[in-house]
């Protein structure tokens, strides 16, 4: 009671009675400070979203910037180059409406998205200098080395009915994980209030991934943002791993057309193989995952699953080796385009899981992120979870060669091949002596690779110039 009286005396020292009459309420001087109801933030149409302030983007067809992929494995596609061309067209089509912005730390050129500068520029209100490049007062690209500022700007922009894309190195978008988490909680609660209208989705492009940060090293290798967003409940977070440029275009268009969610597009910027035609990319986008017939057999003895462009390539390279060494071994390849298809908080769970991964065959996953992330999704699916093996990033990075990143994290084609033969040898699908011999062969390949890169500093030509072939 002594402390309570002390607080009471302290509060009374402010002489609140001078400002408030119990019968009349606040005095006029205080009431005059309250803004007119029409000016209250909660009454602003821009705080409520909906059709009054939100206009859909004009989006070009994804096929407009697609590349020929009729022959799977054709070389020459860069997902970010495709994305840059597409985003430039989005800027052009919506130039008069001015309802689209892109945000990035100082990485637009590095991430191969600089095609947008054909139509827009970096926003800058500073005096212009002769050496300035791609800068202007009306620029729609907001580029600064502060992920926190960019996240806040994007949230405000989207909440007031406009559309945005945040592009970042995968490792450093993790800086704003807490802010994105709070925004996700807001979206979850917002859905309970009918008066709040629809708003566009937050769209992230995560590129310059750890798998191709072999030159910058360990500090630039972190797929953790995937985990943060995957744990959000409410069926509004979607995480995409397009395996090539054509599928990146399909995903980007789809994401820009959605409302009220959070979309993550995880794709590389290097020159890689083309796997899917625009039509197949659309089909896989609709399903979330797909059996790739060109890399699969009927009635498989073992199944590969892959999520991520570089991990997809390694899985397909492993299949190519297996079909060359043991043509009679039957394999299936399942590409996972949308990770949330596998089930996040009860969302998007396919009723035909066994249609893709069979009822009882061993399944080897090659995953872009941490293995435990995918294991959590698979845990609820089957009592026989022991048939699932997951390879992924295991925090084993360095300044090394691209293929050595795969080797260090045990996601390389050679690691996958060895696991296949250990598994099929134990099951009796491959004669044990032959299986052991092949495991030894590819273990020696790993040793040879280590010695080669120590001497030459680059991967051998059989890795650098690998092309897809499936011998039956």
UniProtKB/TrEMBL annotation:
Start and end residues of each Xylulose 5-phosphate/Fructose 6-phosphate phosphoketolase C-terminal domain: 270-468
UniProt GO molecular function: aldehyde-lyase activity
Ranges annotated as spanning the membrane: none
SUPFAM superfamilies: Thiamin diphosphate-binding fold (THDP-binding) (SSF52518)
Pfam families xref list: XFP, XFP_C
PANTHER family the UniProt entry points to: PHOSPHOKETOLASE-RELATED
A biological-process GO annotation: carbohydrate metabolic process
Keywords: Lyase
Family of the protein in this entry: Belongs to the XFP family.
Protein name: Xylulose 5-phosphate/Fructose 6-phosphate phosphoketolase C-terminal domain-containing protein
